[in-house]
Specification:
With about 140 residues, the chain is α+β, with helices and mostly antiparallel strands. It has one domain: SCP2 sterol-binding domain (Nonspecific Lipid-transfer Protein, Chain A), CATH 3.30.1050.10. It has a five-stranded mixed β-sheet with strand order 3-2-1-4-5. The longest helix has 17 residues. The mean pLDDT is about 90.
Length: about 140
């Protein structure tokens, strides 16, 4: 069963909330800040772009923009539809299999680089699941 996100605004609000929670977490925030993450994620069917990067200078874990108007260069670019993104962020879509089946397209780097980032993003996935279960139950998979 696939559960697509209803609107771009809904998914953007969900991502913004999750990234704020993770970045301000006293354990996860510093780990993300130290990870040297710079990634661009495009949710193609919603026309949504998310650029995120580690932010060690401010003490927050990540900085992010929902546009391509950024002052950093992504190391990795991922493109997928909202149903795949929703499953992936809830830990229900295996990254390597999704790439092999072309449900997630990788550019500006390689899939191995993305696989190395997966453990760093574990707190993002955990918070995403928590927020979905609590506040967006229609998106739970």
């Amino acid at each position: 069963m696939t559960t697509a996100v209803a609107t771009r605004a809904e998914f953007e609000a969900l991502l913004d909330r999750v990234l704020s929670l993770v970045s301000s977490d006293p354990e996860a925030g510093p780990r993300l800040a130290a990870a040297d993450v710079a990634e661009r994620v495009e949710i193609q069917d919603l026309g949504l772009v998310l650029n995120l990067a580690s932010d060690p200078s401010t003490g927050r874990g990540l900085r992010w923009e929902f546009s391509d108007d950024i002052d950093w260069r992504p190391h990795l670019s991922l493109a997928m539809d909202s149903d795949v993104a929703n499953r992936y962020l809830q830990g229900k879509e295996n990254f390597a299999i999704a790439v092999a089946r072309k449900r997630i397209r990788v550019s500006c780097g390689d899939a191995r680089a993305a696989l190395r980032l997966l453990p760093v993003y574990r707190p993002v996935f955990e918070r995403f699941r928590e927020v979905v279960e609590r506040d967006y139950p229609q998106l739970a998979v």
